Amino acid sequence: MKSEEEIKKMVKQKYSEIALQDKENGSCGCGSGCCSTEVYNIMSEDYKDMEGYNPDADLGLGCGLPTQFAKIKKGDVVIDLGSGAGNDCFVARAETGETGKVIGIDFTPAMIEKARLNAEKRGFNNVEFRQGDIDNMPVSDNSADVVISNCVLNLVPNKQAIFKEIYRVLKVGGHFSISDVVLAGELPKKIQEAAEMYAGCVAGACQKKEYLKYIEQTCFKNITLQKENPIILPDEILQKYLTSDEIMAYKIRPIIFSITVYAEKQDCCCSSVCC
């Protein structure tokens, strides 16, 4: 079992490689669905009809459309956790407008650089990208109206710490809309141990009940599943890790799901978790 630091180092290395790849020249690690044998791009959804969408900022690394459900209003301050090349930040900017602000946080320097270039090219002065861990955000307390994230929390070992951080940075009455990968059963051991499966958001996922419990324990209210879809790993990926019999057993019922979950910050409940 790798330590938290080993896992973070592995993820940072993989996502640095992805940030530096040029999908137009055919070296797409995750971007546009061009490589079905990569686990990173099999869960992404289509943004093309969403206002503010910029294809250059879309590396295809998501598993949902959290901005579609985030209830962002004009003038809101929005934080995007694991902002990558800026895709969800730019969609959020279209919702919050010139009077709002969007802060993207990512711990991969190559992603931050790519996102800043994308924002500069478009003259987006109210979109800012900060390098840092999402379980220790470089953001002040009670500063955000909305937090969004797309297929990122599963990459961080200490998920409970992330929800505490989200609670800290949200204003009272603020809310989050997060798309993520969760499990409803046990993954085969060979998949759990695969580094590619961790960096691809699968092996790092926790059980759905546990995930929702973390949110509840952090004193969020009105917890709502906005969307839920099964994720079926294609055979060409499974064959890298499992035998034919193991693949058949694995496919009996879906284990991996993408969810989009919403919750609101209430006044502190005065438990040891959130106070």
Describe the structure.
The chain is an alpha/beta fold and 275 residues long. The chain has a single domain (4-265), classed as Rossmann fold (3-Layer(aba) Sandwich). Helix content is 31%, strand content 22%. The protein is built from ten helices and eight strands. The protein has helices spanning 4-20, 66-69, 87-96, 109-122, 159-169, 189-192, 195-199, 208-217, 235-238, 244-250; strands at 77-81, 101-106, 127-131, 144-150, 170-183, 206-207, 220-230, 256-265. Strands 1, 2, 3, 4, 5, 6, 7 and 8 form an eight-stranded mixed beta sheet that branches. Helix 5 links the parallel strand 4 and strand 5 (170-183). Helix 1 (4-20) packs across helix 4 (109-122). The longest helix is centred in the first third of the chain and has 17 residues, at 4-20. The protein is globular, with a radius of gyration of 18 Å.
Question: How are the secondary structure elements laid out?
Answer:
Layout: H1 4-20, H2 66-69, E1 77-81, H3 87-96, E2 101-106, H4 109-122, E3 127-131, E4 144-150, H5 159-169, E5 170-183, H6 189-192, H7 195-199, E6 206-207, H8 208-217, E7 220-230, H9 235-238, H10 244-250, E8 256-265
Parallel strand pairs: 1-2, 1-4, 2-3, 4-5, 5-6
Antiparallel strand pairs: 5-8, 7-8
